[in-house]
């Protein structure tokens, strides 16, 4: 980075870009942070980079409390503006949704429950769900015979 002005604002741009990547995908954000550190080594030592790394770790561990603590710690020194608050809340919501998805998957029922507004569809939904589970339970050899030879991957 040759421009002094660009160096001055680079950490802010990289921080915001990393959060945008994080909203899309955690792996995407990790790769972006690595790229930004290579492009501008001073970014590695910035509070912004350290925050993004803490958030990535918390997200990977599905730890909402660690995520919240990292944001609070950052906010005590550098106040979050409206844009940063919005982005961080979007990421936190995704983390909470992932956490609830994990609890659904680990429950005794393999089929997620219907949302409240769709309870009238329960008979159809339960029948369809059981049919899908039956298809998933078929042995792999069934799929080999069900696919015509010319369409099979070699």
UniProtKB/TrEMBL annotation:
Key word Protein transport present: yes
One cellular component term from this protein's GO annotations in UniProt: terminal bouton
Pfam families (alphabetical): SNAP (PF14938)
Any Gene Ontology biological process: SNARE complex disassembly
Gene: LOC113061239
Name of the protein: Alpha-soluble NSF attachment protein-like
Lineage of producing organism: Eukaryota, Metazoa, Chordata, Craniata, Vertebrata
MF terms (GO), sorted A to Z: soluble NSF attachment protein activity; syntaxin binding
Alphabetic keyword roster: ER-Golgi transport, Protein transport, Transport
Family membership noted in the UniProt record: Belongs to the SNAP family.
């Amino acid at each position: 980075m040759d421009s002094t002005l660009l160096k001055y604002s680079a950490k802010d741009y990289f921080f915001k870009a990393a959060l945008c990547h994080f909203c899309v995908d955690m792996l995407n954000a990790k790769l972006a942070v690595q790229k930004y550190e290579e492009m501008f080594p001073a970014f590695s030592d910035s509070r912004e980079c350290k925050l993004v790394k803490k958030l990535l770790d918390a997200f990977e561990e599905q730890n909402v409390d660690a995520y919240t603590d990292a944001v609070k710690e950052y906010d005590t020194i550098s106040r979050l503006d409206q844009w940063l608050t919005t982005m961080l809340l979007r990421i936190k919501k995704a983390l909470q949704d992932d956490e609830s998805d994990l609890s659904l998957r680990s429950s005794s029922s393999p089929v997620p429950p219907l949302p409240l507004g769709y309870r009238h569809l329960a008979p159809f939904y339960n029948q369809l769900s059981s049919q899908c589970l039956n298809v998933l339970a078929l042995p792999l050899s069934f799929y080999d015979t069900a696919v015509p030879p010319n369409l099979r991957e070699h």
